[in-house]
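Handout, page 2. Input:
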Amino acid sequence: MINEDVKILIPEDFEDNMKIITTIFSSTKEVGLVIAGEDMYPTSEHPILRIYLLEHIDLGWAIQEELHAFAFLNYDAARLFLEKLPNMSALELLIMMSAHEDSREPHAGFLS
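Output:
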């Protein structure tokens, strides 16, 4: 479930050049993800998307830890990943993460 109307407590050390792009929440547990982007604009040569685990606390949602970061060749590849992410199976995501770690170059994984 994607929900843009939640309160997310952002730590002070959250990088200044990152922007929260979207959130995804489990419909069965109080678990969520926040996807943040670096250099996420149409002319970017190497945008980066970072996935963070959220935990529910009394004041809202807090970033618990970074789960993974993905670098892409271009903005369109990053946007395509964002579109597919909520419906991706665990297996697809694991394959993307593995392929991403095996490469030293930013790439779009299996989305190209």
